[in-house]
Amino acid sequence: MSETSAQTPGTIEKQPKDVLDQLMQPEVQESLTVLVENLPKLAEMVTIMTKAYDLAQSVATDQVLIDDLKGGMQEFVKPITEKAKGVAASAIEAGDRAQAETSTIGLFGLLKMLKDPTVQKSFRFVQAFLEIQADKQNQRNS
Q1: pLDDT value, residue 50
Q2: What gap in Å lies between CA 23 and CA 29, rounded to an integer?
Q3: Interval 7-66: pLDDT, tens
Q4: How does 78-94 read in b/e, with b if 16+ C-beta sit within 10 Å?
Q5: What is the DSSP letter of 25?
Q6: Among candidates 109, 134, 86, which has minimal Cα distance to 101?
Q7: How far is CA 95 from its chain centroid?
Q8: How far is residue 7's CA from residue 15's CA, in Å, rounded to a whole number?
Q9: Which residues of 12-50 are buried (b: 16+ CB within 10 A; e: fewer)?
Q10: Which residues have C-beta within 8 Å of that of residue 24, sequence separation ≥ 6?
Q11: What single DSSP character describes residue 38?
Q12: How far apart are the C-alpha atoms of 135 and 129, rounded to whole Å?
């Protein structure tokens, strides 16, 4: 304790001297002049920042708004997840059927499949997709 009290008086005497020395430096005086000249702008900025903080604080603590946003997001995401689950289930089922099927698809089987509207739609999609990819590749290379 005696050590602390011995340091305290020395420290107290040094601090005002250091602050005064710093205030006497030309750079510090210039900075203070700039601050004083810009005080109205700084006060306006602080006011705007305070209002923004208050708004953010009220939004962050408004449970009704949070619940509404959460519900809105769930309504937006729910159809997408259901569709993704449906596609995944169909892919799994198709994989299981393909593994269970041991028959060979011959030329006449392929020709019969080509008449199926679903197969035709799939081929048109694949063709359009590949054309788009080729166009994008050509644009990148140009």
Answers
A1: 95
A2: 6
A3: 455 555 555 668 888 888 899 889 999 999 999 999 999 999 999 999 999 888 899 988
A4: eeeeeeeeeeeeeeeee
A5: S
A6: 109
A7: 35
A8: 12
A9: eeeeeeeeeeeeeeeeeeeeeeeeeeeeeeeeeeeeeee
A10: none
A11: T
A12: 10
Determine contact, residues 80/73, Cβ cutoff 8 Å. Answer: no
Cα gap 136→134, rounded to integer Å: 5
Measure the CA–CA gap between 142 and 137, rounded to whole angstroms.
Answer: 9
What DSSP line would sit under 77-139, residue for residue?
Answer: HHHHHHHHHHHHHHHHHHHHHHHH--PPP-HHHHHHHHT-HHHHHHHHHHHHHHHHHHHHHHH
Structural tokens at position 118: 């679903």
Is the distance from CB of 77 to CB of 69 less than 8 angstroms?
A: no
- How far, in Å, CA of 48 to CA of 45, rounded? 5
> What dihedral do alpha carbons 43, 44, 46, 52 form, nearest 10°?
160
CB of 35 closer than 8 Å to CB of 42: yes
